[in-house]
Amino acid sequence: MRTEEAHHQSMTTTAGPAHAAEPTASSTPRPHAAEPTTGEFGREEVLLASRNHAMPLELLRWERTPAGMHFLVMHWDVPMVDPVAWRLKIGGAVVEPAEFSLADLRARDRMSMGVTLECAGNGRSLLQPRPVSQPWVHGGVSTAEWTGIPLVALMDETGLRPDAVELVFSGADRGFQGGVAHAYERSLPVRAAVSGDVLLAYEMNGQPLLPQHGFPLRLVVPGWYGMASVKWLDRIDAVTQAFEGFQQRFAYRLQQDADDPGEPVTRIRVRSLMAPPGIPDFFSRRPIVPAGATKLRGRAWSGYGLIKSVQVGIDGRWLPAQLDEQDGRHAWRGWSCVWQAEEGDHELICRAEDDAGNIQPLEPEWNYQGMANNAVQRLQVTVLPSVSDGTALP
Amino acid sequence: MRTEEAHHQSMTTTAGPAHAAEPTASSTPRPHAAEPTTGEFGREEVLLASRNHAMPLELLRWERTPAGMHFLVMHWDVPMVDPVAWRLKIGGAVVEPAEFSLADLRARDRMSMGVTLECAGNGRSLLQPRPVSQPWVHGGVSTAEWTGIPLVALMDETGLRPDAVELVFSGADRGFQGGVAHAYERSLPVRAAVSGDVLLAYEMNGQPLLPQHGFPLRLVVPGWYGMASVKWLDRIDAVTQAFEGFQQRFAYRLQQDADDPGEPVTRIRVRSLMAPPGIPDFFSRRPIVPAGATKLRGRAWSGYGLIKSVQVGIDGRWLPAQLDEQDGRHAWRGWSCVWQAEEGDHELICRAEDDAGNIQPLEPEWNYQGMANNAVQRLQVTVLPSVSDGTALP
């Protein structure tokens, strides 16, 4: 087991600014490979979209996102982890460093909960100019039932030294970003990590984790954007100084430009989305809806509190949506409203407010990495007198 | 139960050229919404890529593609099918029309087999000019273990009238394409449908079908491109004239231009792909490999026969790959070869030949819809003296 000091040293050597290569003229390693653009999309963005796939918005009709439809972010390749040889190693500023096999973890009391995760970059491609990275539109959000053991239970076993300030979570995935090779590593302040519902999850929707979701073990941090929920977890280290790895110090920041140190991305901003009504056109995805009473359905969530209300805007006129029962503290909340659809083209909007008083902005707040864009969804819909097999578009 | 004549009538009314709307000046409904382009990618293509996701190429290391990593094509929205109310209806030119519940089907003798499916559009975005539709690069291929009952067993129960020429398979998914609303429907000649290993599958990799893969029942047609394996199957009709639905007559054709009637896409052309060695760069996906002996691994498949050989090209020099054991008749075949990687940039190619004598072309064969591009993969790789955490790109 490395000592905590050696680990801190190794992490700053690996990914910190003092030793990192400089991929650009700037002194700051860049998480994004190019400057924001107003142009069309490049092949790299298409490849990222096809790997790190979205949840198709019609899946908002499902309370729990089925396996394989949960949105996905993998910075690099999916690692093949041998679950027999695998151990979770806990070290650094702890009282008793320890290792746990998967069987060790499964033998402990388990906890299950529905958790809505959202990628911090969800909505990035709607910004102008567009930050060039994973080109999310709206679908970087999903809700699964996660099962595992509370992180706090394991940390109670190893104990934390009083000078520990953060826990650093390391994944088995590695690759290059910002010009330097590193493993995916993120930290949480001790208080956030061990108070509450942070989970070491080994099941998703009642099945062992799939390889792409972090098999055999991942962190699930309810209320935080997905970058905090480290996958393929194999090491937790308590550290006595703030972690400065690449994915913490340079990626996932709210910056105004490349040299702005910015603020870290943390909790999920309040947001709502609508399942497209009617049936879509293959290429444009525009929903085509028959005239008459149409039930609009969607989900809303916030990392800052419970959802208090959802408003639906029909061509600029606001209607209150009806909220489903709240489903635990960490899962999205369903909503619905009936729309009397009249022939023609319409714009549908949904806008949520949480009980901390946060409300979605009508326009995106631009930032350099394209993070945490929670502006309202605007859905352009065509209503025809009727829609059945053989109906032609006007 | 509709009569066979009425069904044929309804299908040509629905989607045939005589009654279809004309979305363009041409008399031919267009499966693609725009002409081929040499430009960058539009938002619609990015959205399609994020819905209809690829199998990331490192998953070639898995013999069976895990749930959720299998490539996905959904022309429209994923339908929510109630498995209790659902029935498979078999009618048209059969002796005894019949309906089957899911329990009826599960009570019959089951069959399992590994089947490699590939989207007919796989490789589309590598064509110049690029047909504008689902923008596949390489990842539209996967292999799952499918379980269900042979179609021939069910057709033996209903019987086929001697004048039946095709079976038409109808899915529960519907939407607009080519300007007209229709359900997804495809036919197979009777001989192809009832002789051999065509499966009505209700399980994938030992689990009930996931919603996006066709729950509760789908067709699996080994050796054919994926468009034949109709999902969310709810009706099979025997017909006495060739089926002329939109997805048969206009989509999935090898055309030279929009007005060329073209040839139908059928079986999967011979192809091989390589799992990227080393570790990737996040944005460019370029593999970075340490110098020395590197095992290259991949898979190869063909709908026309078994794989006979795979050659690996290193900077234009060909080496024979070693083939894994053949895994059934319908699953891809693994291959590997050891590459002595030397510092610098290299181009890696793989090229398969099947036992019917088909070999992959070195350059794509262009066609208007971007179908069946089985040209060799060309992988640009950077070799560094060593690669470990902290290694900087040159």
From TrEMBL, chains A, B:
Gene3D superfamilies attached to this UniProt entry:
2.60.40.650, Oxidoreductase, molybdopterin-binding domain
Q: Which GO terms describe its biological process?
A: sulfur compound metabolic process
Region feature (Disordered): 1-38
Alphabetical list of Pfam families matching this protein:
Mo-co_dimer, Oxidored_molyb
Q: Domain Moybdenum cofactor oxidoreductase dimerisation, which positions?
A: 292-382
Instruction: Name the source's superkingdom.
Output: Bacteria
Q: What is this protein called?
A: Mo-co oxidoreductase dimerisation domain-containing protein
For whether the record's keyword set contains Membrane, the answer is: no
Q: Name one GO molecular function term.
A: sulfite oxidase activity
Q: Keywords in UniProt for this one?
A: Metal-binding, Molybdenum, Oxidoreductase
Tell me which CDD domains the record gives: SO_family_Moco_dimer
Q: Which cofactor does it need?
A: Mo-molybdopterin
Q: Does the keyword Kinase apply?
A: no
Q: For the Oxidoreductase molybdopterin-binding domain, which residue ranges apply?
A: 75-246
